[in-house]
Amino acid sequence: MSDVDEFEDDRAVNSAYYSPDGKFIISSCSECSTASAYDIGFVHLWDASTGAYIDKLTAHRGGACCANFSRTGSLIVTSGCDASARVWDATTLKLEGIFKGKSDQRHKGYVWDVDTSPDETLLLTASDDGFVNIWDIKTREILAHLPHKGPVNMARFSPIENKIIAGCDDGYAYLWPFSRS
């Protein structure tokens, strides 16, 4: 493999994903293990065919744990060491919403992973506080607060949207049924 392209970030790369059309790459970077609340986690956008740097989103205090595109590529979703997730317009790069939650259902630790439902109306967050939250993107309200036995490293909606999978530090992946009603 001598023809490897490199996309250099300024810190540890926590995630890197292609846009659904394959034209862009998005990466998140941080030093979550040593970051202070004053460090900023950035999300970088790259041209996938040329490797050219396009832009940077100032995403999360303490570090950006994950950045990904929604299924159609119209949204960028990010999660961070500041216990929040964010939704951005992928065309304008404008911040559309911050997802922190209220009272006892808000995440209390790093939000390691974030995903959107196939119809892009729901947001899924996985945190080291042991919870997966399902959010309504429009209202930013938590629809479900799912407890696990320990830190949750990843979570994804099923392509048919009636199940969620979550991977945890306890060595298990959990499959949750989910219904909007």
TrEMBL record:
WD repeats lie at residues 57-92, 104-145, 145-181. InterPro entries: WD40/YVTN_repeat-like_dom_sf, WD40_repeat_CS, WD40_repeat_dom_sf, WD40_rpt. It holds the Pfam family WD40. Gene3D superfamilies: YVTN repeat-like/Quinoprotein amine dehydrogenase. This is WD40 repeat domain-containing protein. It comes from the Bacteria. Keywords: Repeat, WD repeat.
